[in-house]
Design a protein that fits this description.
Two copies of one chain form a homodimer. By secondary structure, chain A is α+β, with helices and mostly antiparallel strands. Chain A folds into three domains: 57 residues, Winged helix-like DNA-binding domain superfamily/Winged helix DNA-binding domain (Arc Repressor Mutant, subunit A); 203 residues, BirA Bifunctional Protein, domain 2 (2-Layer Sandwich); 44 residues, SH3 type barrels. Chain A contains nine helices and 14 strands. Chain A has a seven-stranded mixed beta sheet, with helices on both faces. The first copy, chain A, has a five-stranded antiparallel beta sheet with strand order 13-12-11-10-14, with no helix packed on it. In chain A, helix 6 packs across helix 8. The first copy, chain A, starts with a helix and ends with a strand. In chain A, 42% of the residues are buried. Chains A and B meet through strand 8 of A and helix 5 and strand 8 of B.
Chain lengths: 318, 318
């Protein structure tokens, strides 16, 4: 009902009388008033003018499902949205939904996370109302060893969306960092439940520092606001990312991984560069020459020998 | 307390008086009597003789934790045992324990399963009190693409244990079938929760038709009892399998996958044979020549070309 009222107000340029709302939605005038109050408590600014009615002045900068799904225009992405003020981890919650057979495209987001996760058990810092911290449930028909293709796909989608919405140049640092001006503004985490022969479901976790102040970020991290010099709409960015992920995911299902990989190469911050990488407590130096079809990085060392790196951290790019 | 009494009676060759039990365990005579009744209701046959006391005549053929752990002698395997009369699936329950951070070697078994799972969403038929249906929680430090090594390891352990306990020759049909006299008596299922870069935990599911009658089995399936012509102790077999899995798992951690692979090759029903295999709805014929370090089967086709099969069903062995 809340969503219905807010959508009515959104469509209406001017004022909408309580009577009209009451008629269109089949609820009492007192009911309308109560819902308006509820909306205000969520942060919607709604003007009430005697004899003319209500007018939506502004929507809150909050990850409310009705804000995310408004004109989202996707086929399946975001059809179920679970939005929280606070959660231990959107990954864990999405896992539960995966086990409970929720469909592809189910989204879990939270304004803050108490135990936000990064790769390999690291933490993801999630200051409240400042970033986007969300997980997406997918059910791709792939093998476990192909799951990193979805990290690649999501990185392409996120960097494309950031560029379209903020006009900032955005690059991907293998395997899962999103960079603006060489600084990390986001990361992608892919987890799965799988048999040997088949992935049962995948959870893509995305964390983006949107409006976080630099003083509230770990060193070497930045935010879109810091890089752009002005606030960025979290809702617009969220919707843009969901749309892009759906777009690339449908492309992936239709044409396979190859077009995604091509896109990734255009966005890579390291391909063609000399890099230093730590893999299994061993340091490898060389030129990042390619990414293979399973998401492994190929590094040509000074000896000329090409090493395939499945897991690692790029610590320096020359 | 039940476990303490049964272990006292087990150690005692002759009779043990109620008074002595009461003293040794620090419980009342009435308490002893009550526990003896409880044990009887579990299926323990306990003789009571006036002025002499209690004597254990036989233990029930039931998967009780105190029976499984009695003289099990393992380091970590089976230190936690969850035993059920009935369960939807031991896999699902073990998954929950994995998420709740239970340690390696935690076991979930059930006398019957309502929704026993096989590979690729197939069913596993679990008639009550007839077979072994259990799951093992492991936390190996491996990549997702290495998880099939644990299917291989478990298949080696199961076939070795069956051979030692029943004296039946036991072979492994890639990827996960256990055969006696060419008939399927068991299967192994490996599932995991993983990041791209690291497995968080693995659940090994093992199903064995022990004392099931052929008429109660699907076609092409058999049981150890049918093949041997006499009943097999489920508890002895269970303990034997747990011991072998621990042994090979410790070897795996110490020396890597290579010695396990060698053992597997000795137990394979298909290596060196012409086979027909269905992989991704395509039929491949050729000689099964090897298994690679990620558990993929190498098939040399008539053309001489060697095909690497990651997922498939061997439908005929010549």
């Amino acid at each position: 009902m809340l969503e219905k009222i807010i959508n009515l107000l959104r469509k209406e340029k001017g004022y909408l009388s309580g009577e009209e709302i009451s008629e269109r939605l089949g609820i009492s005038r007192a009911g309308v008033w109560k819902q308006i109050e509820n909306l205000r408590s969520l942060g919607y600014e709604i003007e009430a003018f005697p004899h003319r009615g209500y007018r939506l002045v502004s929507a809150p900068d909050r990850l409310l499902p009705e804000e995310i799904s408004w004109e989202l225009g996707t086929e399946f992405m975001g059809r179920n949205i679970f939005s929280f003020e606070t959660l231990d981890s959107t990954m864990d919650f999405a896992y539960e939904l995966g086990i409970k057979k929720f469909p592809e495209g189910t989204i879990v987001c939270s304004e803050t996370q108490k135990k936000g996760r990064g790769r390999l058990g690291r933490n993801w810092f999630s200051p409240k109302y400042k970033g986007l911290y969300f997980s997406i449930l997918l059910r791709p028909k792939i093998l476990p060893q192909e799951a990193s293709q979805l990290t690649i796909l999501s990185a392409v989608a996120v960097s494309t969306a950031i560029k379209e919405i903020t006009a900032l140049e955005c690059l991907i640092k293998w395997p899962n960092d999103i960079l603006v001006n060489g600084e990390k503004v986001g990361g992608i985490l892919t987890e799965m439940q799988a048999e040997i022969d088949a992935v049962r479901f995948v959870i893509i976790g995305i964390g983006i520092n949107v409006n976080t102040e630099k003083r509230n970020l770990p060193p070497q991290a930045s935010s879109l606001k810091e890089e752009k010099g002005e606030k960025v709409s979290r809702i617009e960015l969220f919707k843009g990312i969901l749309q892009k992920i759906e777009k690339y995911y449908l492309l992936f299902q239709d044409k396979g991984f190859s077009p995604i990989l091509q896109e990734w190469k255009r966005h890579s911050s390291i391909l063609g560069h000399q890099i230093k990488i730590i893999a299994h407590s061993k340091t490898i130096e060389g030129e990042a020459i390619d990414l293979d079809s399973q998401g492994a990085l190929l590094v040509r060392k000074d000896s000329g020998f090409i090493e395939k790196v499945l897991v690692g951290d790029v610590i320096k790019v020359y």
